Amino acid sequence: MDLDGLLAHYFGSDDLEALDEAAIARGHEALSIDFGVERDPGRRFALWSLMHMLGEAPDPDAAFKGRADREAAWNLIRLTGRVERG
Fold first, then answer.
1. Superkingdom of this entry's organism (predicted)?
2. For 14-61, how does the pLDDT look when each residue is reduced to its tens digit (9 = 90+)?
């Protein structure tokens, strides 16, 4: 999976800034649905990572059953500096 391909697949463009709110909402919805039904762990993590980068990912503890996947997701959150402070 490559980022440009995923963006083009879900949003119809790799330039999200050029899209209107409706196109972005449709892309987020399709991405969320695919994440929910994906069974391949690698593809599922890739979809979650994209969702995370777009600010739409579910909490890793709810998103992943396996400990290794949860830890990888939390590591990505820490690495990208998107840990919620509160």
1. Bacteria
2. 999 999 999 999 999 999 999 999 999 999 999 999 999 999 999 999
DSSP annotation of 86: -
Residue closest to 1 by CA, chosen among 29, 40, 32: 40
Helix, strand, coil % over all residues of the chain, rounded to 5 = 70, 0, 30
CA dist., res. 64 & res. 55, Å (int) = 17
Instruction: State how far the Cα of 34 lies from the Cα of 10, in Å rounded to an integer.
Output: 10
The neighbour count for residue 60, using CB atoms within 10 Å, is: 18
- Dist. CA 6–CA 17, nearest whole Å: 15
Tokens encoding 86: 């509160």
